[in-house]
Design a protein that fits this description.
With 85 residues, the protein is mainly α. The chain contains 3 helices and no strands. The chain has one domain.
């Protein structure tokens, strides 16, 4: 439980830290996106080392799949937020 929680905390830092550093949302969102995509690519590379697949393909695959999931989550949240206004 502690290891899982710690890894979740470390993984979420790339999305949280930019908003703690920047005063405005736009640069924080850009940095959070870049750092998160870099982290996702790194996880894909680590996965490739275990599965002995191409590291570039695995990194991009992980980044694209999770990126699409994040985009869909944002679109749904935006639609729900608009509906509640």
């Amino acid at each position: 439980m502690l290891v899982s929680g710690g890894l979740f905390l470390v993984g979420s830092l790339s999305s949280i830290l930019p908003f703690m550093i920047f005063d405005t949302n736009t640069p924080a969102l850009i940095w959070a996106s870049v750092l998160s995509l870099g982290g996702l690519f790194s996880v894909g590379v680590a996965k490739a080392r275990v599965t002995r697949n191409n590291w570039v393909r695995s990194g991009l695959e992980n980044m694209v799949i999770a990126g699409i999931g994040g985009l869909l989550a944002w679109l749904i949240g935006n639609a729900v937020g608009s509906a509640l206004e």
